[in-house]
Amino acid sequence: MAEILHTPITVIHVLACTFLMLVVLIQPGKSGGLGALSGAGAQQVFGGRGAGNFLTKTTWATAGIFFATSMTLAYLSSSADESLQRKSKIASEKKASSSSTPAPATSGKK
To answer: DSSP per residue over 1-35, as a string?
Structure first.
């Protein structure tokens, strides 16, 4: 089941990351951001309280999606990896078998 979900969640994660970068860059800051590049028209479209509030809500929503997909992908990659469980089992078996074999004899010469 985890393999089926991994690819679509990764796609959503990358799209949310890209969109979040664009939304943050569009927002006017102290120096105007990328909105300042388009001149006076940018102040009318992106300026004022309404557009700032819309961009703020969009940023928070996109950041929430990005956070949720990040946590989901981290969980899926850590819990669904059977190879790590197999490596852990092999390592514990090697440790158990090496502790049951006697240590090689050392010579008393110095």
So the answer is: -HHHHHHHHHHHHHHHHHHHHHHHHHS--SS-GGG
For residues 78 and 86, give the distance between their C-alpha atoms in angstroms, rounded to a whole number. 13
**pLDDT of 70:** 96
Alpha carbon dihedral 37, 45, 23, 56, in 10-degree steps, equals 130
Is residue 63 in a domain?
yes
**What pLDDT digit, counting tens, does each position of 68-94 carry?**
999 999 988 877 556 667 777 888 888
Domain annotation covers residue 56? yes
Tell me how many domains the chain contains. 1
What are 10-32's pLDDT values in tens digits?
Answer: 999 999 999 999 999 988 776 55
Q: 45 phi and psi, to 5 degrees?
A: -80, -50
Domain ranges, residue 75: 43-80
- pTM of whole model > 0.85? no
Q: Which residue has the tokens 């969640």?
A: 9
Residue 28 covered by a domain: no
